[in-house]
Amino acid sequence: MVPAAFASGTQTTDTITQTGLKPGQVKHVWTIVLENKSYDATFTGLNQNSYLWKDLPAQGALLTNYFGTGHYSQDNYISLASGQATSNDLQSDCSYKNFDFGTNKNIVASHTGANFGRTDNFGQLLSPAGANAANGENGCTFPKDIPTLFNQFDAAGVSWKGYAQDLHNQPGREDALGGGPGTAANNPTTNPRVMSTSASDKANGITSFTGAQSNDQYVAKHFPFPWFHSIIGDDNTGKDALTAPAGGTMTDANHIANLDDPSLGLISDLKKPADQVPAFNWITPNNCSDAHDPTCVGNNLSGVFDANGNPNYALPLTTPPTNHTGGLYAADLWLKYYIPLIERSAAFKDGGLIDVTFDEANPPFYSMSFNNATDQTKVAQDAAGNERYSYKTPTIKDFAEGYKQYSANTFPAPGPMAQNYIKADLAGQSINGKGVDWEPTGPNTPLAADENGNQLYPGPGDNGYITRPPSCEQDTTLVNADKSNCVSGAKNTSSSFSGAKDLAVTAAAGTDTLQGAVSVSDIGRAVTGAGIPAGAFVGSVANEGPNLVVKPSDPVTNASFKLVDQQGNALKTTAAVADVTLSATGVPGHLNPGESPLSTFDAQDATPGGGDSGSVLISPLIKPGTVSSTYYNHYSWLRTMEDIFQVVKGNDTKQLTAGSVSGGLDGLGHLGFAAQDGLTPFGADVFTNAAVDQTANPTPTPTKTTPAGTPTQTAPQGTSPSNPASKHPEVNAAAKPQASGPLASTGVDMTTGIALLVAALALIVGGVTVLLVRRRHEAHEA
Fold first, then answer.
1. The domain boundary residue, chosen from 656, 675, 694
2. Separation CA 175–CA 442 (nearest Å)
3. Transmembrane region positions (predicted)?
4. Theoretical Cys-Cys bridge with 747: which of 20, 74, 670, 697, CB 3.0 to 4.6 Å?
5. Contact, 151 vs 243, CB < 8 A?
């Protein structure tokens, strides 16, 4: 439905803050959140997902520097919905128990640094267990005085709905309010759900609360609604939530629905007149269709596509799949099925905006990608030219430093593979028009290092995909006798090293290539076994896929590795090989006998964010083929939505512990870290067609001059075409500041504005001259 603020049709010509949009230009938004893929995995050709990689960017805007705010998963959904920062239980996807994450008394009620600056935690929730508390000590559900975007919508009269694929498919699995885990009787205050499954759960058909099962691939950790008392209320009825939508509750069937419900689902809603479709639509595909699972235990929709790869809408969605391949293959199928339905709807043609984004960026390596960015395969080499970052293929010589003995509590610098992985833990956003390589850490996941430069805490990036040294105090089973291989004071390291591993392989005699289930993290491990020459190691690794697997347990990639000696020279098998043993891995600089240095080890680099995932937006307000390299993140997204729907004009200004629903924290309608001073929302670099009359061509299509998959570059906010953003966020710090004068809200910089004024004056002078000449001519004829 059209927001009340826009229903009168008396739109002003003023733009909305920095978005460059006029009030009411965007009337309907569909936000689709996918899972766990980096920009380099998705938008380069590495995984051959051509619909998301090529087709959709050609219809709209590709954001090449859109960052997640943390790892892993659930904390990102919280940031999108509320602007709240990371905490350990959420970074662990509420894997222990869903109990209350403190009370209103734990909300930071005063400024802790420069107002709305980098260190200001005003309005953030501080864990009752303190900063860096371990998983299981914090809780997962926020108290009622932490409002969300959806509460702001209620107060502003903006209609909304949350759709989740497979929601309620399995009775008793996600029947708590808002799609929360457990039965309808479960609630985080008096009846918290333990997230491991009991014998009783399994007897009732529930095999997992945190992962997919064959008949129900929904997971509550990817749906933001059940994790806020401001949405579900306190009394487990939903009637005492912080706000209420017109004519119902925030958790009723008109606001929380199964994506494919025949009467309440997305397809049913899209058939309605534009003014009857919710203004904001949140869509969570299941754990298969969102690209999370490499193979799908349930349906991936492959059965409803014809031989030419087009969806057959005459077939029911329950049609058995033709394969069980997941990842970006399954996400492409889902998008190719649903996006055209949205685009054909009356609501999309009436100020529509589709936003396809990811929660976080996992590195472009197996098992988070079908193919490895470092491989020498043609697919990987072709993709390399499109990648945001440069990745180095490690060699056995890169491990030499790890075999040396280091002094106590010091370690070698990270090797190439760890440096590859750490790119998925970067942060980025724009402040006052300048790209920066940081985000606020919040009160629960600060960053710090010891005197040796060793990182002490996981930070928002949660030590993602790399391996830290053990904590001298917490990881006692990994600490050696003299405590020389650990870091004193380190917390929540998630430090782990592999024991020796037996591996089934296939290799003929006289070859240096072995087929077996390996990944890039195995590079550098010693290899022993019958037919393996002495002094052999895992050299380069290749993972090629996806395979269209018949069963979820089938290998989705073909994996192989080269056999090399310690100088990197090729070694050949002396006989046919059927199985080998890979050595145990250990702490570089402090190895025990028989151990090899772990390739992902990194003691020194911080993990400040969720990595660059990229994002795609499609709208009549966006020129097809637009590309923006401005640095954005989930807090930028939240601020954009708050500004687009003008939530600050809502009627709920009651004082909360910090701020209010409508006013947000800053009095401008911004919640959590969306209220950072100078945070840049999506602007004229994204909404490149906002000044054009939309009635002439309401549906975005690729232009004749722009081939599909070859977007037109536009200058991002805070940069200039002659100095485009580089591959690293910090380069943008020196970029041109965003205009702050009267033209700032239009997205037009001062230089362009002056040029336009000069042109206008020239036209006026020219017009006056023509008029005078004409009058003289008329007088002469008279």
1. 675
2. 31
3. 753-773
4. 20
5. yes
